[in-house]
UniProtKB/TrEMBL annotation:
<dbReference type="Pfam" id="PF07690">
    <property type="entry name" value="MFS_1"/>
</dbReference>
<protein>
    <submittedName>
        <fullName>Membrane-associated transporter protein</fullName>
    </submittedName>
</protein>
<keyword id="KW-1133">Transmembrane helix</keyword>
<keyword id="KW-0813">Transport</keyword>
<feature type="transmembrane region" description="Helical">
    <location>
        <begin position="246"/>
        <end position="266"/>
    </location>
</feature>
<feature type="transmembrane region" description="Helical">
    <location>
        <begin position="407"/>
        <end position="427"/>
    </location>
</feature>
<feature type="transmembrane region" description="Helical">
    <location>
        <begin position="167"/>
        <end position="188"/>
    </location>
</feature>
<dbReference type="InterPro" id="IPR036259">
    <property type="entry name" value="MFS_trans_sf"/>
</dbReference>
<feature type="transmembrane region" description="Helical">
    <location>
        <begin position="97"/>
        <end position="113"/>
    </location>
</feature>
<feature type="transmembrane region" description="Helical">
    <location>
        <begin position="439"/>
        <end position="458"/>
    </location>
</feature>
<dbReference type="InterPro" id="IPR011701">
    <property type="entry name" value="MFS"/>
</dbReference>
<feature type="transmembrane region" description="Helical">
    <location>
        <begin position="541"/>
        <end position="563"/>
    </location>
</feature>
<feature type="transmembrane region" description="Helical">
    <location>
        <begin position="365"/>
        <end position="387"/>
    </location>
</feature>
<feature type="transmembrane region" description="Helical">
    <location>
        <begin position="134"/>
        <end position="161"/>
    </location>
</feature>
<comment type="similarity">
    <text>Belongs to the glycoside-pentoside-hexuronide (GPH) cation symporter transporter (TC 2.A.2) family.</text>
</comment>
<keyword id="KW-0472">Membrane</keyword>
<keyword id="KW-0812">Transmembrane</keyword>
């Protein structure tokens, strides 16, 4: 529901030249191939090898936009899922105490398998390329998942006539569809970003990530907009059968077209195939990288002396959105010395992080827990609390119609959230020079906590829709500020090493970004496991906004006390 460190390992595929006996400098590392050794090895791993950088040609703006269209389609479908999962599950008869558990299965799988799945695409030898086969397979799973999710009830109703049996099978099919879609949509982002890095020069990477971020926001806004419309009484609604079938039609059409456009946007060079002259530009310099240059989170060793220095052209970008989403990424030519990232090695690396990085992870966990408490159940809150409808009523009753109307208006609120998130990302640039990163971080949590508190206290339509703009403030904060803090911590460490005259390179930022991404999945696990029980105990879904407000304000306190300040 969103940034990778800008590193030299993300550059297009290099040509490897062996040069034994020399110490070399490790690059910053990607999440997809990790290191599972001891703490000392984690800090000093390296091996002698030289890479010659061969950049792909400059990509046109049109190609980069076509490549990014998949993010529009993905976020469009994500918006539909976020808006309708809870209403659909409740409408098929899922007990209120269990409805948050549907969000529990997919993040557990992601938390355990993401390093393995991300690494697998690095070793794919398909003639179609390393990334596109995985993107296609996951894209098909997404389509199958959303098909079962939005059509499962209708299909089961047509097949089974027994009411009790029909309810059980409808719940099973819809839940399976949700889990399958969520799993595929979460995992597809890593190969998409890796595909971008593989086929683009370093200069085009930043442009490509910008278009990805822009199209992600637009996709979410349009997805919520489609969900906000009353399709049940329209001509197309009567033709297709129900509102959910109309939404499915637009979702499947959007995803199918944009996935196809993405897959044919830029050619990909298969692993092991020598690139043609048309695919590469002449090498600009020799790059010295370790054989563990894709090891996630390790530190650089002493570099080899070169006749001339190699400047670091990496720009410092304020927008970390594209960066954090790429933490699974693009290991270059794999070799026998590399070790794949495992769940155990990732946990070991997180434990060995400096204190201020761990504090950042805790605050990120609090923030995402607050955000997901509200966002995953907001349309249900609108239908039950603001509009006072009943999701368990007969589908042809007035009470259920009122609930559906509340869900539609909730989608308008989430659309406001998507727009305000995009606008606030630009406002952040102006506020940064006055209050700094820590101030922006605190303000995002505080505004969200205050806004959700007011929604809980005054649950009327106008006030709730106006306050939906604070969701966008929190969204933009979570997608950018923590990763920019990591970049600044990295910069400070580099400066301290220079002042100390230390020849060692700084920490790699790979594990840090991976840890933040894992906090998102851990937050979803916490919400899925606990929020349903809280709703059942309280007897009202108003507890979702109360929980969101509480966690956000706790995050404010934690940021003020424990997050390291940077200039």
């Amino acid at each position: 529901m969103t940034l990778l460190s800008e590193d030299q390992s993300a550059r297009p595929q290099p040509c490897r030249l062996p040069e034994p006996g020399k110490h070399i400098r490790n690059s910053l590392h990607q999440f997809s191939t990790g290191y599972s050794g001891s703490k000392e090895e984690y800090m000093t791993s390296g091996e002698s090898v030289v890479y010659q950088n061969m950049d792909p040609p400059k990509r046109s703006r049109g190609r980069l936009i076509l490549h990014g269209m998949v993010m529009f389609g993905r976020e469009f479908c994500y918006a539909v899922e976020a808006a309708f999962v809870t209403p659909v599950l409740l409408s098929v008869g899922l007990p209120r105490s269990l409805y948050s558990l549907v969000w529990l299965i997919s993040p557990i799988l992601g938390f355990l398998l993401q390093p393995i799945i991300g690494s697998a695409s690095d070793y794919c030898r398909s003639p179609w390329g390393r990334r596109r086969p995985y993107i296609l397979a996951l894209g098909i799973f997404m389509l199958l998942g959303i098909t079962l999710f939005l059509n499962g009830d209708a299909v089961i109703s047509a097949i089974i006539t027994d009411k009790s049996l029909k309810s059980v099978w409808a719940i099973v099919v819809v839940m399976f569809g949700v889990v399958l879609f969520d799993f595929a949509a979460d995992f597809i982002d890593g190969p998409i970003k890796a595909y971008l890095f593989d086929v683009c020069s370093y200069q085009d990477k930043d442009r490509g990530l910008h278009y990805h971020a822009l199209l992600t926001g637009l996709g979410g806004a349009f997805g919520y907009l489609v969900g906000a419309m009353d399709w049940g009484h329209s001509v197309i609604g009567k033709l297709l059968g129900s509102e959910y079938q109309v939404i499915y039609f637009f979702s499947a059409l959007t995803w199918g077209i944009f996935l196809t456009v993405h897959l044919f946007s830029i050619p990909e060079i298969p692993l092991g195939k020598a690139p043609s002259a048309a695919d590469l530009t002449p090498p600009s310099a020799l790059r010295l990288l370790g054989s563990h240059s894709n090891v996630y989170g390790s530190l650089a060793k002493e570099p080899v002396s070169l006749p001339t220095s190699i400047p670091d052209h990496r720009p410092r970008s304020f927008s970390a959105l594209g960066e954090a989403n790429s933490v699974t990424s693009s290991a270059k030519q794999p070799n026998k010395a590399q070790k794949k990232m495992t769940f155990r090695s990732l946990m070991k690396a997180i434990i060995n992080m400096p204190h201020h990085y761990r504090c950042l992870c805790v605050s990120h966990l609090l923030g995402w827990t607050a955000f997901l408490c509200n966002m995953l159940f907001f349309t249900d809150f609108m239908g039950q609390i603001v509009y006072k409808g009943n999701p368990y009523a007969d589908h042809n009753s007035a009470s259920y119609a009122i609930y559906e109307r509340g869900v539609e208006v909730g989608c308008w609120g989430l659309c406001i959230n998507a727009v305000s998130s995009a606008l606030y990302s630009y406002v952040q640039r102006f506020l940064l020079q006055y209050i700094g990163l820590k101030g922006l971080y605190f303000m995002g949590y505080f505004v969200f906590g205050l806004g959700t508190s007011l929604i809980g206290l005054f649950p009327n339509i106008i006030a709730t829709l106006v306050l939906c703009s604070v969701f966008g403030v929190m969204s933009s904060t979570l997608y950018t500020i923590p990763f920019n803090l990591i970049a600044e911590y990295q910069r400070e460490e580099e400066e301290q090493l220079k002042l100390q005259g230390n020849d060692e390179g700084p920490r790699g930022t790979g594990v840090d970004c991976a840890a933040l991404t894992c906090m998102v999945q851990l937050a979803q696990i916490i919400v899925g496991a606990g929020l349903g029980a809280l709703v059942n105990m309280a007897g009202s879904v108003i507890v979702v906004v109360v929980s969101a407000s509480t966690m956000s304000l706790l995050g404010c306190i934690f940021i003020a006390l424990f997050i390291k300040y940077v200039d």
